[in-house]
Specification:
Length: 283
């Protein structure tokens, strides 16, 4: 037994070596695999997990760390700027409204925009003038010693009775005739053919040494004297004039002072927007 091992031992070892060498180079030898490429073939989208991830967009700044006083100051500035803008818008609206109103008045008065003087209010056969036209034309009256005033839709010209009449009478003074001549000429120039009321007024003082029984009678007589003068000595037509006797019922100011009583003694020429349908030029 020992002899057999000694004899065949080297042979067995050689066979084992040959067998091992054959397995290393034979068909059962472990082959190295080629590296796997993660690149997709042309025309094929890459898997989502293989696409490099870009960094996320930065988050909006947080105001948690901002000083509250800074936020309040910024808010206050925004409010102030907003208020300034609103004020400017309001001012522009006011300017637009004012301009529109002026344009409408100019159109109503027959004026082109920017015209300096209103036109004369002519006679057109009984047609009424608008209040805007009446007031605009009033500026054309040249009566330096009198103060025409616009009252609703009419023009009132107050003439002191002391300039027209002698004392407590209805006798027209030469100065009064000159005043009425001037006033009538201006009214015919600016308001030709308009209806004109002749209104007599007195103060509250009792009549002294007068032939008139009441203030109404005296104011009626004075209005009639003005009517007679205007229809006989001027170009005014009787159909455009009418008389009103107010007595002391409508004072302009208080009768407590001499100056106030003097102002309340007056004759008012009241120009109405209506025109008389008469041929004034034929007179």
């Amino acid at each position: 037994m020992n002899l057999s091992r000694a004899r065949f031992g080297p042979l067995i070892a050689a066979l084992v070596a040959v067998a091992l060498a054959g397995c290393a180079s034979g068909p059962f030898k472990k082959q190295a695999l080629p590296p796997v490429s993660l690149e997709p073939p042309p025309g094929v989208a890459a898997p989502a997990h293989t696409i490099p991830q870009t960094s996320a967009s930065p988050l909006p700044p947080s105001y948690a760390d901002v000083d509250g006083r800074q936020l309040e100051a910024a808010l206050s500035r925004n409010r102030q700027e907003s208020q300034v803008m609103q004020d400017e818008i309001a001012a522009l609206r006011d300017q637009l409204a004012s301009t529109s109103s002026q344009l409408a008045q100019a159109r109503s008065a027959g004026l082109p925009p920017g015209a300096d003087k209103p036109p004369r209010v002519g006679n057109d056969g009984g047609v009424s003038a608008t209040p805007v036209v009446m007031q605009s034309a009033m500026t054309q009256l040249k009566l330096p010693e009198l103060q025409p005033r616009f009252d609703g839709a009419v023009i009132r010209i107050d003439i002191p009775a002391d300039r027209l009449f002698d004392g407590g009478t209805a006798n027209l003074l030469p100065e009064g005739a000159a005043v009425l001549t001037q006033v009538s000429a201006e009214l015919e120039r600016v308001y030709p053919g308009h209806f004109i009321g002749i209104e007599g007024h007195l103060d509250t003082e009792p009549l002294q040494n007068s032939s008139w029984a009441s203030p109404h009678q005296l104011t009626a007589a004075r209005a009639a004297a003005v009517f007679d003068f205007l229809t006989t000595r001027t170009s005014m037509h009787e159909s455009q004039l009418f008389l009103v006797a107010h007595g002391a019922n409508h004072p302009l100011v208080s009768n407590a002072t001499a100056a106030g009583r003097a102002r309340n003694r007056r004759v008012e020429l009241v120009v109405y927007p209506d025109r008389a349908a008469v041929d004034i030029a034929a007179k």
